């Protein structure tokens, strides 16, 4: 195809807008990362704004690991993310697959209940009372079980299952396969994109678990990473004029943000292909 002047102008405008959006997203991350690695004297010298550090120091990360609850809270968060995501995927799949089968008795009623919970919830206080009544307070299960299934993710996965050719299911039934075997041997392998997409949604939610931890957990040994980072960001009381062997508050705060953000950011590029495909195919039907 031959591009005319209008197409070239539109292409240039599009690239300019995308570059601007990219800068808006990248510059704050680069600033936080740079400040966490730059000696504080150098930060003050440049008016508190550093994008590319000229000198490197890892004192903030060393102190973060040695004097705070970061290592313990990181283990708690990893447990929540791995175990919670596994439970989420199993329960979401077992809910979405039957709802995707049109021969399910009472399918419309079940779909109505799923959509109803998507639009309306019981509220914070009733949810807290239920968690307390079930004895989950001060346990990690209080951060997993109340959010074991997301109605939104159920609908995404259900829509994806409905895109699979019905002939595959009919041929499997003719060969004598039961529904559980069809689900785990046929449907699940074909649904890898939506599984990864939904799993990423759940994993990010568990990694960023904060409000539920404040509500349901008082034992400091069970605090997830985001709660400890919040304490570092708000409760650190070091003065700015520190000795050479001390780490200023701002540097500690930036290091804590990097420590909490980098792991989940590092995973996304490997899942981006499946994420995009799962979102597109899972959103064709309602």
UniProtKB/TrEMBL annotation:
One Pfam family, short name please?
BPD_transp_1
* Membrane among keywords: yes
Instruction: Tell me the ranges covered by the ABC transmembrane type-1 domain, including all copies.
Output: 74-271
Q: Which GO terms describe its biological process?
A: transmembrane transport
The transmembrane residues are: 12-33, 74-97, 109-129, 141-161, 182-204, 250-271
Q: How does the protein's chain sit in the membrane according to the entry?
A: Multi-pass membrane protein
Q: Where in the cell is it found?
A: Cell membrane
Print the keywords alphabetically.
Cell membrane, Membrane, Transmembrane, Transmembrane helix, Transport
A GO cellular component annotation here is:
plasma membrane
CDD domains assigned: TM_PBP2
Q: Which family does it belong to?
A: Belongs to the binding-protein-dependent transport system permease family.
Q: What is this protein called?
A: ABC transporter permease
């Amino acid at each position: 195809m031959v591009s005319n002047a209008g197409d070239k102008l539109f292409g240039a405008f599009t690239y300019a807008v995308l570059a601007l959006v990219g800068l808006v997203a990248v510059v704050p991350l680069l600033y936080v990362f740079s400040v966490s690695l730059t000696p504080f004297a150098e930060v003050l010298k440049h008016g508190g704004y550093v994008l590319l550090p000229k000198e490197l120091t890892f004192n903030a990360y060393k102190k973060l690991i040695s004097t705070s609850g970061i290592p313990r809270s990181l283990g708690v968060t990893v447990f929540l993310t791995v175990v919670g995501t596994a439970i989420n995927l199993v329960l979401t799949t077992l809910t979405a697959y039957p709802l995707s089968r049109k021969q399910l008795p009472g399918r419309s009623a079940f779909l109505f209940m799923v959509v109803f919970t998507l639009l309306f919830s019981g509220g914070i206080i009733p949810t807290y009372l239920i968690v307390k009544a079930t004895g989950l307070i001060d346990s990690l299960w209080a951060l997993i079980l109340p959010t074991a299934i997301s109605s939104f993710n159920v609908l995404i996965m259900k829509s994806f299952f409905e895109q699979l050719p019905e002939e595959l299911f009919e041929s499997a039934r003719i060969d004598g396969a039961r529904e559980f075997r069809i689900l785990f041997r046929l449907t699940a392998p074909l649904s890898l994109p939506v599984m990864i997409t939904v799993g990423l949604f759940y994993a990010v939610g568990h990694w960023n678990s904060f409000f539920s931890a404040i509500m349901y957990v008082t034992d400091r040994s069970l605090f997830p990473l985001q709660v400890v980072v919040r304490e570092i960001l708000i409760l650190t009381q070091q003065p700015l004029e520190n000795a050479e062997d001390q780490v200023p508050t701002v540097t500690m705060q930036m290091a804590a943000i990097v420590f909490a953000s980098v792991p989940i950011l590092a995973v996304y590029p490997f899942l981006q292909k499946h994420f995009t495909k799962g979102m597109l195919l899972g959103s064709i039907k309602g």
